[in-house]
Amino acid sequence: MDPDRGYRIRAHVPGDYGQLRALWAGETLPAALGLSAADNREGIAAFLQRNAGLSLGLWCGEELVGSVLAGSDGRRGYIYHLEVRPDVRGRGWGRRLIEQAVAALAASGVQKVHAFVYADNHPGRLFWQSIGFLLRDELVVYSRETTEQARFDKPLSAR
Ligand SMILES: CC(C)(COP(=O)(O)OP(=O)(O)OC[C@H]1O[C@@H](n2cnc3c(N)ncnc32)[C@H](O)[C@@H]1OP(=O)(O)O)[C@@H](O)C(=O)NCCC(=O)NCCS
Questions:
Q1: pLDDT value at position 121?
Q2: Nearest to 9 by CA among 86, 92, 75
Q3: From CA 61, how far away is CA 30, in angstroms rounded?
Q4: Could you read off the pLDDT of 85-144 as tens digits, one per residue?
Q5: Atom of ligand 1 nearest to the CA of 66
Q6: At residue 150, does pLDDT exceed 70?
């Protein structure tokens, strides 16, 4: 029997939040996802509204078994929190989620898409390489919180 029967990808809606949290909670390497305080119910709902149709869930029946959040600032596309549940990995669903998210971003007018990957996420890096993303080893990322006063004498937490 076809192992992918019963699986389908559809755009996320805010009501998926509970299942999204459950999927993330089951990740064996949670740090790889880069979750932050912004990933609360309100934050995700606002993100999905602002980027309607770009973030995708992989469903097996009524169960969420994969997800990717995708958004755009109108110029570049950004991909966050890609996960395929461990028991569903290695069947091409991660690739399909990204291909569909990139297609949706392209349709929205975006010409280039970035994915931020923790340097120590070696399996994740192999994945992005396998699906044709180019490693930008000439770049590093600088970040700063907007909600707290800058404290230049103390480095921000990395994640
Ligand atoms: C990364 C992840 C989404 C991949 O999902 P997946 O459904 O297993 O990936 P696919 O089956 O679509 O694989 C696509 C390609 O990536 C390669 N790949 C995937 N996982 C790999 C791994 N652990 N090691 C080496 N290559 C890997 C596959 O071999 C495949 O290449 P091929 O088509 O040339 O054979 C999944 O492992 C995951 O959820 N990891 C934990 C969370 C994470 O790290 N997310 C990424 C954050 S940046």
A1: 97
A2: 92
A3: 25
A4: 999 999 999 999 999 999 999 999 999 999 999 999 999 999 999 999 999 999 999 999
A5: 39
A6: no
Q: What CATH number is attached to the domain comprising 40?
A: 3.40.630.30
Residue 155 domain flag: no
Flag whether 138 is in a domain: no
Handedness of CA 38, 40, 43, 44 (dihedral sign): positive
Decide which of 158 and 31 is more confident.
Answer: 31
- β-pairing, 76-84 vs 112-115, is parallel
The pLDDT score that the predictor gives to residue 139 is: 96
Number of structural domains in the chain: 1
| CA R_g for the chain | 16
Residue 84 Cβ < 6 Å to ligand 1:
yes
Distance 77 CA to ligand 1 centre (A): 20
Q: Establish if 147 belongs to a structural domain.
A: no
Asked if the structure places residue 25 within a domain, the reply is yes
Range of the domain at 83: 7-130
Q: Please give the helix or strand (H or E) that residue 106 lies within, else none.
A: helix 93-107
